[in-house]
Amino acid sequence: MTVYLPIAELSVNILIILGMGAAVGFLSGMFGVGGGFLITPLLIFYNIPPVVAVATGANQVVASSISGAITHFRRGTLDMKLGSVLLVGGLAGATVGVWIFSWLRRLGQLDLFISILYVVLLGTIGALMLQESLRAMRRAKQNQQLPVRRPGQHNWVHRLPLKMRFKKSKIYLSAIPVVVLGFGIGILTSIMGVGGGFIMVPAMIYLLRIPTSVVVGTSLFQIIFVTAYTTMVQAVTNYSVDIVLASILMVAGVIGAQYGVRVGQKLRGEQLRALLGLLVLAVGLRLAVGLVVTPDDIYSVAVGGRSY
Amino acid sequence: MRRLKAICAIVGVLTLAATLPAAAQVPFAPASAVKEGLDIGVSSNEIAITSDFRGADLTIFGALSNTDELLLAIGQYDVVVTLEGPRDYATVRRKERVLGIWMNTESMTFQQVPESYSIASTRQIDDLEQGPSFNSVGVGIEHLPLDPVGYIRNSGVISEFRESYRRLKLGSGLYQRDTSGVRFVSSSLFRASLRLPANIPDGQHMVRAYLFKSGVLIAQRETPLRVVKTGLEQAISDAAHERPFAYGFLCVLIAVVTGWGASLMFRKD
Predict the structure, then answer these.
(1) Which has the closest alpha carbon to A20: A37, A1, A38?
(2) Interstrand relation of A10-13 and B216-230 (parallel, antiparallel or unpaired)
(3) What residue spans of B24-138 are helical by DSSP H?
(4) Distance between CA A187 and CA B151 in Å, rounded?
(5) CA distances for A306 relative to A121, A302, B110, B117, B148, angstroms
(6) DSSP H/E element including A299
(7) Is B92 in Cβ contact with A235 (below 8 Å)?
(8) What was the ipTM of the complex prediction?
(9) A99, A101, B40, B173: which could join B197 in a potential S-S bond, CB 3.0 to 4.6 Å?
(10) Whether the predicted pLDDT of A92 surpasses 90
């Protein structure tokens, strides 16, 4: 059963896209991640042009983040003020990111750049996840306690000026690192089509020392608006959001996520994280192979290109 | 499975037969006295195709007049019919291995080349000895003018890029040639079949017919053909390009509704 994607300009098997969306949704529900960093490479493997894969991936993350953010909002584990400061940086970062994206596209280096970024990012994240989960498994075997983090401990981040009080998070923190973090994540959102939660959450916990309870909800809040904004900007500047592809992915993704959450609650955390780490590494490796293997044709042709 | 939708842009030129001048019927009239004429007809100047379009044939009828019967009999007349797509700049890029990674290093942009190009002829025109004539009018895939934009440092690579451009276009089906696509139905009527590729660009196309006598171009006709894509998919694509704000907003709205809807539907309490 094929469906024609009007923006990607190719026919795809709807069942494969549904399966991809459901699988990534399942994983994202299970691990509490947005799934953008898996869906975009998968779409690229399925011959969707990277330009479309990235913009559509950002759109898909809007849907997958919303239900999570609503849950956190109901539970009161969402710091609106902190989220808004993150968002200021995020929107600026996304604007710069789309500008870099268009510039690389004109240069003919976009596909390469996206692949390299993914290889680096997935390689790093996958390796870290695997390492961390293996260590946790070993610790569980030896029945050790987790080292307790002392909340009073401060680092250089806490000596920066422009301090603000975030009541819900119960912290007094400079706005500068928050905006900078949001900015960096915004750039990643527009170039890679990811929400960036997998970087933002550890950065908020370990670097900004924000209490773990509000971190996920607050990052989801920021992700919704930055990915929605990126979708709009990509639609206006690059015309590369495929509404048909995005809709199929979103519907399959949110359903998959519901089952993922249920399964995730029953399974052992460390083993799951080790599996996810392996999966992330495998996707990164597959992309890396694509960069090194001799292409079928070293020439390519594109319509347009007047000003270069 | 998608049905192959054959379109019949049939092209009637029955009227042309009636307009054949009497001179063509006189066997021994001096050929050089009257100039040969060429006429073509297309039944419609617009083709609407749907998004599941898988390619089709376009048939064009044409008529020759005032031909020399003797030259016609020995095949000295050649008819070439082309369908040229809308013109735009085209950029060809070449990859090279840099630090083990394949990346685009060189590129060349050609000026205003047709996005699609189908050619049908009475025989292999690239074999014709009178190549310069084809070159001067730019008929044939090998003779399409490909002028690079800007300053090219290494002029030696131009031919390589041109060749790659033609190869890629032929490979994608956007450029097609059929060396037996033009057939004479009678001594003065011919029928040309042009292949419309599945990925034919929409916009203003041009049907051109050329009459060569002993390799020299003696008559030329052209008629426009509009290719309009229809259907839901095309409407979406149009909306994305013409109303990007509304389109982007709709994409976000769908995401919000989907995400929100899922959280309502699967709510546990």
Answers:
(1) A38
(2) unpaired
(3) 69-73, 131-137
(4) 35
(5) 34, 11, 9, 20, 11
(6) strand A299-303
(7) no
(8) 0.83
(9) B173
(10) yes
- The predicted pLDDT at position A90 comes to 92
Choose the closest CB to A112 out of B94, B103, B249. Answer: B103
User: Are A87 and A181 a contacting pair, CB within 8 Å?
Assistant: no
**Residues 6 or more apart from B251 whose CB is under 8 A from it?**
A59, A231, A235, A241, A243, A246
Q: Residue type for A206, please?
A: Y
Contact status, residue A70 vs residue B260, Cβ threshold 8 Å: yes
Residue range A177-182: average pLDDT?
A: 89
Residue reference for tokens 């809007």: A62
Is residue B16 within 8 Å of residue B63, measured between CB atoms? yes
For residues A305 and B66, the model is more confident at: B66
Chain B CA closest to residue A235: B248
**Count of H-run helices and E-run strands, chain A:** 10, 5
Instruction: Report the C-alpha gap between B267 and B241 in whole angstroms.
Output: 38
Give kind and range of the element (H or E) at residue B15: helix B14-18
Interface of A with B in 241-270 (CB under 8 A): 241, 243-244, 246-247, 250-251, 254-255, 257-258
Residue A261 phi, psi dihedral angles, 5° rounding: -60, -45
Identify any residues that bridge with B50 across adjacent strands, giving them in sequence order.
Answer: B230
The bridge status of strand B117-121 relative to strand B175-178 is parallel
Q: Where are the beta strands (DSSP E) in chain B?
A: 37-41, 46-50, 56-65, 77-84, 87-98, 101-114, 117-121, 175-178, 182-184, 189-196, 203-213, 216-230
| CA–CA distance, A274 with B22 (Å, rounded to integer) | 88
Window A:136-195, CB contacts with B under 8 Å = none
Minimal CA separation from A71 to chain B, in Å: 8
Over the stretch B9-67, which tens digit does the pLDDT of each residue have? 333 333 333 333 433 444 444 445 567 788 888 877 888 877 677 777 888 888 888 77
CA angle, residues A304, A41, A13, in degrees to nearest 5: 80
The model's pLDDT over A229-252, given as tens digits with 9 standing for 90+, comes to 999 988 888 888 999 999 999 999
Chain centre distance of CA B242:
26
- Predicted confidence (pLDDT) per residue in B157-208, tens digit: 888 888 888 888 888 888 888 888 888 888 788 888 888 887 788 888 899 8
Mind listing the pLDDT tens digit for each residue in B86-122? 888 888 888 888 888 888 888 888 888 888 888 888 8
Tracing tokens 């498994």 back to the chain, one arrives at A137
Q: What is the pLDDT of residues B112-170, one digit of tens each?
A: 888 888 888 887 665 554 555 565 667 778 778 787 887 777 777 888 888 888 888 88
Kindly state the DSSP code that residue A280 receives in the 8-state scheme: H
Minimum-distance CB partner of A299 among B92, B109, B263 = B92
B12: left (phi over 0), alpha (psi -120 to 50) or beta: beta
The crossing angle, in degrees rounded to 10, of helices A175-192 and A212-237 is 50
